[in-house]
């Protein structure tokens, strides 16, 4: 049995999220036996910063949600309590979950609520606006005024009965254009706008349009397949992924470095109002979700097609979601080969695998997957190499398979070493360092550290090896500090 085999006796529930309970445990207190093993080996370091208005590369990192207890109301009216990691818990979402004994066992699949009558009766759009505006500390006193202004616009434009998440983006565009000509509170509410200030509230509505939640909701309304697929395949990064995708689409030509105060907001408002067509990147992502979901398994393909970096779907997500019955054999083989190469690099630190070792890999056998015949191997490897996922090189008549990123790192390292050696030949490095200095008193107590220091001073390149704690870092830092102080 595959280590990724889905648990049996799982109950599938689809329904609307109800008012959620508070988080039942903090992230550090989670009992791993209670949760899906979907959390294993997830990289949670948020190491990238990003300005959505810039044309810089778009990096996405994984974020592990807290374990939360929610209630799901299915179409038959039954309430199903469920505890697990839900990235989104707002009541305007419908989810499809697989659960056992009240515990979430796989990533939830998200759909925006499309019951127009319920949306109007429960003021779901207003709740959505509140969720987005409440995250901005600067808007504590403005939130109610912004909502009141938009509601006034909806009532007086005759659009209130048509308001839903599917129509929201179009209504926001109309509102922004009208609000620029004068505050809707003053135009339509007369003197009944209470303590709310009469001003251009459209500038604050940009916090909704530019927020992560705003991006996900508006995409869920316009491209439901993209959101449901990415939420299942990229459970801990899909909100960031969709946000980057949408923000780059709308604001790709907006200069985020504008020195004029307020000009960035103005430029973004204009870009949103004029965005009459869906950007090609969003179309490409939606097409991937509908026609080639396996491409989400390869971060190199995501980077090339969508210019989104740092995320990819795990093999486990495809198995649990039942995707493999719809994936062609070549692409399926490629996904397993890619999994073996990544796992071998993680476990053993190998930069590459010989082809024969790859074919007979223990990891592949453990996954209970067989790729039979030379043609299947050739097709899968060609697919991976064509998409810049791997690189094949021949050493001594042996084919070696690299992950492309590892191969590039090796090439870059070799080029850097060659440059150092070339410069040393043209102009030999000469460091006039007095090793009898008091800076090196500590190093002189250890013969290996003293010899290593001498070698670094004499040779253009020195390789230090040794077990942890033997002093490699100490030698380098002491020497560099001495050079800096000279």
UniProtKB/TrEMBL annotation:
Residue segments, region Disordered: 24-53
Protein name: DNA helicase B winged helix domain-containing protein
Taxonomic lineage of the native organism: Eukaryota, Metazoa, Spiralia, Lophotrochozoa, Mollusca
Transmembrane segments: none
Database matches in InterPro entries: P-loop_NTPase, WHD_HELB
Origin superkingdom: Eukaryota
Feature: compositional bias, Acidic residues: 31-48
Primary gene name: 106078376
Record domain DNA helicase B winged helix: where: 286-395
């Amino acid at each position: 049995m595959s280590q990724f085999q889905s648990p049996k006796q799982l109950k599938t529930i689809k329904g609307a999220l109800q008012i959620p309970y508070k988080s039942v445990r903090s992230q550090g207190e989670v009992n791993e036996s209670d949760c899906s093993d979907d959390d294993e080996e997830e990289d949670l370091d948020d190491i990238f910063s990003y300005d959505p208005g810039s044309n810089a590369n778009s990096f996405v990192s994984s974020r592990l949600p807290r374990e939360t207890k929610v209630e799901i109301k299915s179409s038959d009216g039954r309430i199903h309590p469920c505890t697990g990691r839900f990235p989104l818990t707002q009541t305007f979402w419908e989810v499809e979950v697989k659960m056992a004994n009240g515990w979430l066992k796989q990533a939830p699949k998200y759909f925006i609520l499309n019951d127009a009558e319920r949306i109007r009766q429960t003021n779901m759009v207003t709740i959505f606006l509140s969720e987005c505006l409440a995250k901005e500390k600067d808007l504590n006193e403005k939130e109610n005024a912004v909502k009141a202004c938009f509601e006034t616009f909806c009532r007086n434009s005759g659009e209130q009965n048509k308001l839903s998440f599917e129509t929201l983006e179009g209504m926001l565009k109309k509102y922004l254009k009208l609000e620029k000509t004068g505050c809707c509170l003053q135009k339509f509410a007369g003197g009944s706008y209470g303590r709310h200030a009469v001003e251009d509230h459209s500038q604050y509505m940009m916090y909704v349009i530019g927020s992560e939640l705003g991006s996900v909701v508006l995409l869920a309304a316009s491209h439901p397949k993209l959101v449901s697929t990415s939420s299942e395949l990229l459970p801990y990064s899909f909100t960031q992924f969709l946000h980057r995708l949408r923000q780059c689409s709308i604001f790709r030509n907006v200069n985020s470095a504008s020195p004029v105060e307020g000009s960035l907001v103005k430029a973004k408002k204009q870009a949103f109002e004029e965005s009459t067509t869906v950007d090609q990147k969003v179309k490409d992502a939606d097409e991937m979700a509908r026609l080639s979901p396996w491409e989400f398994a390869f971060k190199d393909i995501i980077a090339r097609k969508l210019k989104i970096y740092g995320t990819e779907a795990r093999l486990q997500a495809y198995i649990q979601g039942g995707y493999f019955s719809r994936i062609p054999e070549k692409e399926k083989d490629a996904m397993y080969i890619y999994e073996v190469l990544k796992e071998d690099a993680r476990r053993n630190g190998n930069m590459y695998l010989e082809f024969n070792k790859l074919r007979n890999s223990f990891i592949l056998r453990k996954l209970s997957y067989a790729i039979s015949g030379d043609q299947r191997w050739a097709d899968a490897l060609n697919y991976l190499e064509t998409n810049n996922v791997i690189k094949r090189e021949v050493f001594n008549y042996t084919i070696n398979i690299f992950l492309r990123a590892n191969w590039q790192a090796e090439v870059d390292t070799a080029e850097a070493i060659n440059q150092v050696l070339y410069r040393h030949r043209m102009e030999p490095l000469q460091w006039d360092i007095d090793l009898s200095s008091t800076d090196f008193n500590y190093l002189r107590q250890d013969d290996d550290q003293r010899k290593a220091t001498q070698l670094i001073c004499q040779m253009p390149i020195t390789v230090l090896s040794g077990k942890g704690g033997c002093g490699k870092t100490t030698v380098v830092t002491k020497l560099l500090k001495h050079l800096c102080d000279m």
